[in-house]
């Protein structure tokens, strides 16, 4: 029987996080982003960035969590990265203070496709929300590619909604539209997250 759990990322996880990111992007975004862009992403460069994110986060509220599936062996199968909202969370032309200091931003929430539909995404999101609550954050935002139905469906199934903000990323001279979703952070764990309930 396989078991899944979430834990904080460790420095030695950086290479595997980068591998999961590339594998997931190359499957999930193959119809959204130009193929040559996906093919030319540098796994070693991504691993260095993830190592820095784990070892030297901008604040104590910036976190990287990993999802683990444990059977005969343990496998890193997904990850989530988030922190207080900064300029990257803003829509074009949005005032710098419009999101406020109590807003979290998800920068990444990925589960490698071959490990999908096993609850890893839900566990990552739940653990992330628990940490936001501990940090006193009351709302969260996340950008999703307009064409990424899987991510949008997952987030909306857990209570997230579009907040009306949109932007387009310039990916090698191709504009790729994104929409921003938001959710209120519950003040208490949901009943299914409480021990004994």
Overview in brief:
This protein has 197 residues and is α+β, with helices and mostly antiparallel strands.
Write the layout of secondary structure elements.
Blueprint: E1 3-8, H1 14-28, H2 35-39, H3 43-55, E2 63-70, E3 74-84, E4 103-111, H4 120-134, E5 139-145, H5 149-157, E6 161-171, E7 174-184
Parallel strand pairs: 4-5
Antiparallel strand pairs: 1-2, 2-3, 3-4, 5-7, 6-7
Task: Tell me what you see in this structure.
The protein has 197 residues and is of the alpha+beta class. 29% of the residues lie in helices and 32% in strands. The protein has helices spanning 14-28, 35-39, 43-55, 120-134, 149-157; strands spanning 3-8, 63-70, 74-84, 103-111, 139-145, 161-171, 174-184. The two termini are 23 Å apart. Mean pLDDT is 91; it is low at 192-197.
Distance between the termini: 23 Å
Low-confidence stretches: 192-197
Summed up, the helix count is 5
CATH architecture: 3-Layer(aba) Sandwich
CATH class: Alpha Beta
Q: Remind me, CATH topology?
A: Aminopeptidase
Any idea what the CATH superfamily is called?
Gcn5-related N-acetyltransferase (GNAT)
Task: Write down how many β-strands occur, each being a DSSP E stretch of 2 or more residues.
Answer: 7
**Count of distinct structural domains:** 1
Helix content: 25-40%
Cα radius of gyration in angstroms = 17 Å
* Percentage of β-strand residues: 25-35%
The ordered string of helix (H) and strand (E) elements is EHHHEEEHEHEE
* Mean pLDDT reading: 91
What does the overall shape look like? globular
